[in-house]
Amino acid sequence: AMEAVIRPSTTWPVSSTVAEGKFFQEIAARVPRGSYHLKCLQACTSILMGTSFSTSIMKTVVMRVLTTVPLSHWWDRDFVPQLQDIVEYLHSSLQEKRLNHFFVGNKNLPKQIKLPIDFQRVEPCNLFHHLAQDPVAHAQALQEFEELQDRLVRLL
């Protein structure tokens, strides 16, 4: 489990399960009827087996894309472009060796997501920090990304 250090004397494990649920409920209320955003998440997580990418990494990418791509674009007929946006975001994050945790250190959370203010005030937590520190792990992640792309093409 990831740990957050909010103040020098305070450390505890971070779980975003409740906040994630609220985020997806909020999105579901705002996307067009027939949106496939959760099917995109399911498709992306189904191809992760055998790689070092976790479902929490993929959820983070999907949540980030959901907040950057206009929600009006999340129609069922746009399923493939949505998947491409998600994969492209993951790829650029891997190249930059940076994927910030969606909740910890995010000053731009939707107003409906209520977290302790200290969660927003801390420095963003880079989920790809280890890739920036280890060139071998970074090269392996890029190779695994190629595998994910191939799996996604076969899935479609």
From TrEMBL:
All residue ranges annotated as the Mab-21-like HhH/H2TH-like domain in the record:
51-112
Which InterPro entries does the protein's record reference? Answer: ITPRIP-like, Mab-21_HhH/H2TH-like
Q: What is the lineage of its organism?
A: Eukaryota, Metazoa, Chordata, Craniata, Vertebrata
Name its species. Bucco capensis (collared puffbird)
Q: Which GO terms describe its cellular component?
A: membrane
Instruction: Name the Pfam families on file.
Output: Mab-21_C (PF20266)
Q: Which protein are we looking at?
A: IPRI protein
Q: Which Gene3D superfamilies match?
A: 1.10.1410.40
